[in-house]
Prior knowledge:
Blueprint: H1 7-13, H2 18-39, E1 45-47, H3 49-70, H4 77-91, E2 94-96, H5 106-122, H6 127-131, H7 134-149, H8 154-169
Antiparallel strand pairs: 1-2
Amino acid sequence: MSEIESVNEYLSRNDITNNRIASRYVSILEMMEIFIVKKGIGQNIIIDRELLKTAICDYFVDIARVKDFHGITKVNTEKIYGYMAYWLLKRKPIQVRLLFPESAFINELFITEFLLSSILAEKNISHTQCAQNAAFTQFQSLLYYNLKYRLVTQQSLELMIEAFFCGYGFLPEKPLVTNNP
C-alpha cells in the first residue's frame, strides 16, 4: 500500500469490499451472540462493537497484505480462520461487566469455540461425534490453554488448523467416533 493509497482503495484492489467486511462483521457478531446465549452470560458481558469492527478491519488488511505479498487472489481456509481468530484474540471484543467463572478468559473461550466449530464444519464433523473422543477433548483443552497462556500468531493458528486437517485425512471413514462400551 502506497502512502497516497487509502485503506479502502487498498482493500478494494484486493477484492475486499465494504459489503464483504460488513458481512463478516455480522457473521462474527451472530456467532458471539449465540455463544453468549449458550453460556448464559448475557447479563455479565457486552460485545464492544468498536473493538469487533477493529478486529474485522485488521483481519482484512492482514489478508490484503498476504494477497499482495504472494500475488494471490484467494487465501486458503486455514489462513481465513487462523487470521480471524488471531485478530479477535488481539482485540478482545467481548468485555466483562460482572465477574463470573471463566470471565478472565472469555474471549479465549469464544475463540476456541469459533475455531473448533469452523474446522469441524469444514470436515462435516458434528460436535456430538467429538464429545466421546478423548483425543479431541485433549486437543480442545490444549487449544484453549494455548490461547490463554502462550504466544499465538496468525501463522501458528494457521499451522494448527492445517495440522488438524492433515490428521483428519489419516482417519478411517468415520472419524472421531469411539466404540467404547
